[in-house]
Amino acid sequence: MSNLGFRVLERKSNIDKNIVRAYKDVVTPHISDNLNRLFAGGSKLRPYHKEGKLLGVAITVRTRPGDNLMIHKALDMAEPGDVLVVDAGGDKTNAVFGEIMLRLALKKGITGVVINGAIRDVNAFSQSSFPIYACGVTHRGPYKDGPGEINVPIQLDGMVVNPGDLVVGDEDGIVTIPNQLVEEVLEKANKQAALEVEIIKSIEEGTIDRSWIDKTLEEKGCEF
Questions:
Q1: Tens of pLDDT along 27-41?
Q2: What angle do the packed helices 69-77 and 99-108 form, to 10 degrees?
């Protein structure tokens, strides 16, 4: 019988590196729109790094608030190209990630970290291009007792993340793409990007059609 709540599992799925690289220039709004706006990581998760896009495959961690034992274990397990995605309950009482862990992550080739909780040593992150998103900052350090789980489904402010999902983060926030949908969403997001180029062009040329606004108002019974 497994020790539910205190266990380390292997990730069973991964994503072709070429597909991951193809998302390099895809912005989170185009991804989100083509997931019907249901896969957002929540506005509480904000970037604390100087610059740089977060992109990689999720290794997930669920830990009790204020404890980073299982985060350390996940750092040791992670492979180059992974993104560490941690559900620490959104608690900001104790930081669960700091500069030493940042340096470990860089050494391992991890491409970013998402913490549904707090970080510390924020100056080190603000001067780095290593992508990190968190709920907040506190100088109070973590406990290292457990329990926790690695490579299980977690949630960040309502967004479910499974191990092996694709994680993308930019200035607008975090979004994850279910492993089995990465190719379909990529195609749709690229089509949307091309469409928006044409829309911007029509704005500049003064040819944009805005009749949809009055049509929508009329359909909804608005008097004007």
A1: 999 999 999 887 777
A2: 20
